[in-house]
Amino acid sequence: MTLAERARRVIPGGVNSGQRSIPGLTDLVIARTAGSRFWDSEGREFTDYHAAFGPPLLGHNDPEVAAAVADASGRIGLTGVAVTEAEVVLAEQLAELIPSIEQVLLTSTGSEATFHALRVARAVTGRRLVVKFQGCYHGWHDAVSLNVISAPDRVGRPDPTSTGILPEVLDATLVLRFNDVAAVRQAFAEHGADIAAVIVEPIPHNVGALLPTEEFLRTLRAECTAAGSVLVFDEVITGFRHALGGYQAISGVTPDLTALGKAIANGAPIGALGGRADLMEQFSSRPGGPVFFAGTYNGHPLPVAAALATLRKLREQPVHEHVFRLGARVRSELAALYRRIGVPAVVTGYGSVFVSYFMPGPAPLSYDDLLANDTALFVGYRRRLIEHGVFELPLSLKRSHLSYAHTDADVDRLLEATEAAVTRTLAEGGPSDLVHVSTMGGAGAAAGASRC
């Protein structure tokens, strides 16, 4: 019996996240990672552009981060009481780097950070409604677990990612079109007195890359300020990967709260929620704070050590210069490749993130625009990339990432493999088993009766 078969006997579906159950890859078992690569249990080597949805900005198993974790593991373990010096130093650095952060609390995941952001927003405003945007993903919790990658007939109405969510929870979330300034203004005109928070990915990377207009982000800030609502930037993906100050430092728009995650610690499990002191002091980490906040693994010494080592390297070495240069090269040369072989495509992204949408231009501004993407070609060419030792996640609309460990030779290999994979997919046709190539929408359509 293979390892994958053994996994399916004792783990539902054989994987520990719904985003890891990939059609066509159900027998993949990862054995080792290093730098820009991973190896499977059969000894096959892959250049990795998926990169665990983005955390290892420095590359897998960065030696300086690994050394810091090893040093911490020999000195200190989890006590679950008080605070460590490393937690203090990390909090100070986050407050120094991120414009919106005056105080910060550590979590284990980004989902926890966004959950607590909405909880405290509702607590301080006494309001019920949350605004999110179609195509944005903010974690697994019920209030925001809807309208991410939706089928065309589910856009414009509640599209939960899971069954088992109370309808009254879904009803308390307003879903708007990303980059739609008029829709934002109308929502506040109609519901502003009951909007506790607006939560947004400043770049919705969970559907590849929708770049925000300056007017859109500034409108969110202005409407929240006028209505007394809390503006939450979910920078779990954009934070540190795009800049040390997050995308808010690039855009010049400062939210009230910021959720951080993936790139803080190069793959170690840590998240953070920070923002205005008057909001953060509502949490029960401060004696008397009315908003409950807890977590046994919050501030765990090993992820904190990984985070400090990661931030040190990001500050001291030309990490962003390197990944931004490679990212610009990938996007430019992929676009030229598609023009040369006559494939309608839009190549977009930001910094170290890139994605090819197979559809006519211009670049998409909202999820509605992405409905024109050729899903069969998108998924099909990525499955064939695997035959060339190149890995981009073969799920609908998923972005790809470059790390400090990637090289120009890796990019050369990516371009060659992409041309071969796209050409073959066009000649032989894309896959027909597309039912499960998106796992972030349609639960209500598939099993509407189970909406409690």
Automatic annotation (TrEMBL):
GO terms for molecular function: glutamate-1-semialdehyde 2,1-aminomutase activity; pyridoxal phosphate binding; transaminase activity. Keywords: Isomerase, Porphyrin biosynthesis, Pyridoxal phosphate. InterPro entries: Aminotrans_3 (IPR005814), Aminotrans_3_PPA_site (IPR049704), PyrdxlP-dep_Trfase (IPR015424), PyrdxlP-dep_Trfase_major (IPR015421), PyrdxlP-dep_Trfase_small (IPR015422). It catalyses: (S)-4-amino-5-oxopentanoate = 5-aminolevulinate. It holds the Pfam family Aminotran_3. Its cofactor is pyridoxal 5'-phosphate. Its EC number is 5.4.3.8. It comes from Actinacidiphila alni. This is glutamate-1-semialdehyde 2,1-aminomutase. Belongs to the class-III pyridoxal-phosphate-dependent aminotransferase family. HemL subfamily. The keyword Isomerase applies. One of its GO terms (biological process) is porphyrin-containing compound biosynthetic process. Pathway: Porphyrin-containing compound metabolism; protoporphyrin-IX biosynthesis; 5-aminolevulinate from L-glutamyl-tRNA(Glu): step 2/2. It is an enzyme of class 5 (isomerase).
